[in-house]
Design goal:
Low-confidence stretches: none
CATH topology: Aminopeptidase
Bound molecules: coenzyme A
CATH superfamily: Gcn5-related N-acetyltransferase (GNAT)
Number of helices: 6
Radius of gyration: 15 Å
Strand content: 25-35%
CATH class: Alpha Beta
Shape: globular
Number of strands: 8
Order of helices and strands: EEHHHEEEHEHEEH
CATH architecture: 3-Layer(aba) Sandwich
């Protein structure tokens, strides 16, 4: 079970708010993550994604403290995506998604910059791991803009596709993040 710690205050960006997801967000979570174009790019999203999956996710966030930082990406009061870090200290992994109607507007990069600044400032300077499936150039571009660098290739299980998929493994150091995102 994941163990989550919410940000003390919502993280505000020029256009977005990053804050813990709530029960009122469940309908939007299910609608957006059910889109195969979203789910197939994520490793651990159950498939098909149902209301009970979103409820179980929120219950695990609410029941636990201290290890992960999962936040909703909110635009004009509505959830449009998610962003998070599993493992705040030690080995930590960054992930994110947006509903399809919200792609191509710079939101992932904007949310990622604010989120990672918060992570480095609040939870220490250690590197952050991430990566993308090889058929996800948009996400690779987001990571390049944030400063992530390729460190290898692995096979990673994708629940939505039901098989392992080639995955580009990446890493971000605080020094590189701050040099590219002053
Ligand atoms: C990946 C994802 C988060 C990107 O969100 P976004 O808000 O559209 O990203 P941004 O607008 O901040 O940046 C996208 C960049 O990719 C580029 N891009 C988009 N499609 C591309 C493609 N097919 N090939 C190469 N670059 C592409 C854009 O031009 C932009 O780069 P630019 O700013 O230099 O022009 C979004 O598409 C998504 O949620 N996809 C499904 C889930 C997912 O993939 N999550 C990440 C898992 S690793």
């Amino acid at each position: 079970m994941s163990r989550a710690i919410p940000a003390a205050e919502p993280i505000e960006t020029p256009r977005l708010t990053l804050r813990p997801a709530a029960a009122a967000d469940i309908g939007r979570m299910v609608a957006e993550i059910s889109d195969p174009a979203v789910a197939r790019m994520l490793a651990r999203v159950p498939w098909p994604y149902r209301r009970r999956d979103a409820e179980a996710f929120l219950a695990s966030v609410a029941a636990t403290t201290g290890r992960d930082l999962p936040l909703a990406i909110v635009l004009d009061g509505r959830l449009i995506g998610g962003i998070g870090l599993s493992g705040i200290r030690g080995e930590r992994e960054f992930g994110y998604w947006l509903g399809r109607d919200h792609w191509g507007k710079g939101y992932a990069t904007e949310a990622g910059r604010a989120f990672l600044a918060h992570v480095f400032n609040t939870f220490g300077a250690g590197p952050v791991n991430s990566g993308v499936f090889v058929d996800n150039p948009a996400s690779m571009r987001v990571q390049a803009k944030l400063g992530f660098e390729k460190v290898g290739v692995s096979m990673r299980q994708c629940l939505a596709r039901g098989r392992p998929v080639e995955h580009i493994d990446t890493i971000l150091t605080r020094e590189r993040f701050e040099s590219l995102n002053p």
